[in-house]
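task queued by scheduler; priority normal; single chain, no ligands, no partner chains; default sampling; output format set to structure tokens
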Amino acid sequence: MAPDSNPDARPEFLAEENRRLRRAVDELTILNDLAREISGSSSSQDIMGAIIHRSLRAVRAEQGVITLVDEKASQPMKTLVRTMVTSVQGQPFHLDQCILGWMHINKKPLLVNDPENDVRFRGVDWDESTQTLLAVPLLAKSRLIGVLSVYNKKGGGGFSDEDQRLLAILATQSAQVVENARLYEEEQALLRMREEIRVASEIQHRLLPKVSPDLPGYQVAGISIPAQDVGGDYFDFLLLDENRMAFCLGDVSGKGLPAALLMANLQATIRGLTLSTLTPCQCLERANTLLFQSTDPEKFATLFYGVLDIENHRLSYCSAGHERPFHRTRGQMLHRLEAGGLILSFLEECAYEEAHVPLQPGDTMVVFSDGITDAANERDEPYTEERLATLIANSSEESAEELVEKIVADVGKHTGDHPQFDDMTLVVIKRR
């Protein structure tokens, strides 16, 4: 029978219609207020806080949580961001991993008014303060980016289907805004990181020698090519007096900014010790102790340190676990410089051996990092020390600068378009 043909039913019908209209107006007001509040903010935390506040008022819940996840990651349910708002005193609720897993599979609202007896979550150890739970997915372009959940209906009782429908609408209207804000923040963080790396690269470049020293009777050249914007290799030339020059080539473990920071620490340490009247082995012994005391156990460095006496034409050197440099005599005989000890920062106290090499006219010293010999082509074949030795042996006429360029070009010829994996550093000293 139609409502207006039954006088007794008409008042109930009108009352129900009025309730529906008021509920629709309330929902539109909530959505309008939320849209106005989050449209003026670019902060994902502020946006999520506003969403939770409106959700708590809309469904009259005690506490709300938004958990953002990355469905594309290797651990898709790993929490990226968690924002919580509560209107009561008590411990914050944590969305259980099984709930996140359920949402990852189903991507639809979840209403739990009797957690202990819900057959979907048998065996789950619920927190005793969790009386009721309503969770809805945050979907951006059909991809799960997070979960909006509310706990414990105020005044007792459970959440209704109307609560579920309203919370789902709020999540639908908010998900893309949250995702856009999060992506914007990630983009800004990436831009800041790139700028920091650019500045770090400039600083590191300034730490390297700007020009090669002009030594009577000698040619000196060096180059360092980082695999990334910043690297862990370095070389240095330090004039001690008019007849002596200290030089070194170091290779710090790791790559990128951590290696660059440790490299700067090592360079400052060596420069400070070089100003003292220390022999090469004493310099490395003290550098080893200082580095051990100021770095993590897994950090270390290799270093070749030498002092060139241009008056007596003699090289005094010591190596801390570094690749053995090549000494090519005028007669094209190749020798390796062996003296030294362990890598720096492996043990707090370590003794190092020092050796001395006379330099005849035409002799050439080539010090290099393992980024040269380990440089690989697309077939993963390394450049090798043997190929470097052959090139050095057959390069008696080149100047120190020309030999550096020749070695770098030959390594590039070997690797082709294969990306550089490690920092490459060279120092060449030649007696005219």
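post-processing summary
- The CA atoms of residues 239 and 245 lie 4 Å apart.
- The chain has a mean pLDDT of 87.
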